[in-house]
């Protein structure tokens, strides 16, 4: 999917919501546990109930790898289901990968080619040659960690390096990498005041924003400081939507939560 | 496996060699491609031919994920084979993971509990709460990226932060994390001169050292500056050993290459 197509979807749906498919078998409705592939059945129901309210789904690979072979199979089935039934959706493999060049190429192929996700998240610590293999894929996107939403973000990301915080250097440096136009960035919603400065460095890039809802960030605040003329934001919510209920009505309740966010987004976009 | 058991194995085998099982189907002997699980068959032959010369095997997960479900199955079979047949081997899942707390817990369970690796590699960018879930596992080890062997290491890892390079701050800070005694660090062999300073910060920690061989680092140099009284090094070689030949004699040739390194290590340990 091209960036332009993503922007069109956002305008059409009046939504820049991304739903995180972080499926934990201990949290899903018990009646699904009797099915052959509970994770996929859960995802399928959530997707069918919410696809018109969001522009993106983001399975976090950890939650699939935790179930070994069966988990990997559920991930494959989930991405195939989205790609076949809802090809207008922007898909994100939240994998936070990064390794030396030939190894990053293997990861890039796994997620962007074989599984055919539109994008994958990567970690910046190993630098340019660990990320460029991901950037080489046409009409695919690489979403690099900049400023994350967890407490540990303050351990290294905000350290002063050459007169500015590390995450700013990460943003600035990466812009100049080969195919840097294929970069988006992860910026946590718990730090809305940082968005003003981030937008000075990457005015046009899409920012994937976790931390709204369960992690405590405010949508209005993030939009106030982080939005650009193409919206430029993908706001992720995982637990707040997918675990809204663990009864038979889980998909319906998930839709209700997604709708609340979509309505809030529509209002923000109309202003 | 405890650190003490690893040290005993090193003394017994006169080796601190780690063999990287980074299996690429385009590089393995063609006769294996006719078997049901070429990756596992390749690993099994390499392991049987080299297990007495090394103390550790390190499959890089990228090379398995690149083959989807089948790849994950090969990884499972490989780690099970090592754990059953050669339980004295220290196993490393080279995964370079790291995410917010609840997600890191899922990765930690996947690699340290379900697959039952002795250790897993992680990235430091997201800080303390992204790594501590891995450290919580008893008699398991978390190998954190400090200074890597690729060119991109100079993008961020060597930036000045508060008067010292970032990788040194990473080493220093992480020592104080909960269960920090379960940490080891990745330090690239291409930068032997850095080991003196690294040893001032982490005198007792084990260092996993990639970059000997194919990536150009020198074993003698690394040992000169990086060894401590318990050796404290795991020297990794992947391509130099496993792709020594792509004929019928691949395992035999891999053994020859591993033996060269083991002999060199034995000489260094004897001095």
From TrEMBL, chains A, B:
The keyword Transcription does not apply. One of its GO terms (biological process) is 'de novo' UMP biosynthetic process. One of its GO terms (molecular function) is orotidine-5'-phosphate decarboxylase activity. Residues 16-254 form the Orotidine 5'-phosphate decarboxylase domain. SUPFAM superfamilies: Ribulose-phoshate binding barrel. InterPro entries: Aldolase_TIM, OMPdecase_type-2, OMPdeCOase_dom, RibuloseP-bd_barrel. Signal peptide: none annotated. Pathway: Pyrimidine metabolism; UMP biosynthesis via de novo pathway; UMP from orotate: step 2/2. Its EC number is 4.1.1.23. Pfam families: OMPdecase (PF00215). Keywords: Decarboxylase, Lyase, Pyrimidine biosynthesis. This is Orotidine-5'-phosphate decarboxylase. It comes from Flavobacterium terrigena.
């Amino acid at each position: 999917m091209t960036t332009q197509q993503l922007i069109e979807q956002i305008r059409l749906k009046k939504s820049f919501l991304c739903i995180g498919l972080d499926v934990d078998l201990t949290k899903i409705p018990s009646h699904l546990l009797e099915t052959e592939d509970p994770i996929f059945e859960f995802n399928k129901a959530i997707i069918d109930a919410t696809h018109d309210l969001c522009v993106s789904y983001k399975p976090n690979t950890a939650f699939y790898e935790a179930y070994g072979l069966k988990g990997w199979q559920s991930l494959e089935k989930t991405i195939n289901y989205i790609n076949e039934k809802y090809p207008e959706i922007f898909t994100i493999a939240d994998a936070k990968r990064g390794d030396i060049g030939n190894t990053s190429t293997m990861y890039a192929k796994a997620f962007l080619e074989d599984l055919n996700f539109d994008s994958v998240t990567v970690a910046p610590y190993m630098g340019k040659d660990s990320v460029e293999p991901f950037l080489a894929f046409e009409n695919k996107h690489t979403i690099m960690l900049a400023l994350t939403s967890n407490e540990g973000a303050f351990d290294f990301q905000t350290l002063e390096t050459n007169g500015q915080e590390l995450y700013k250097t990460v943003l600035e440096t990466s812009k100049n990498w080969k195919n840097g136009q294929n970069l988006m960035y992860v910026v946590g919603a718990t730090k809305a005041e940082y968005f003003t400065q981030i937008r000075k460095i990457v005015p046009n890039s899409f920012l994937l924003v976790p931390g709204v809802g369960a992690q405590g960030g405010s949508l209005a605040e993030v939009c106030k400081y982080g939005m650009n003329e193409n919206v430029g934001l993908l706001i992720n919510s995982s637990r707040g939507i997918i675990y809204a209920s663990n009864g038979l009505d889980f998909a319906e309740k998930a839709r209700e939560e997604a709708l609340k966010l979509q309505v809030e987004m529509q209002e923000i976009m109309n202003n």
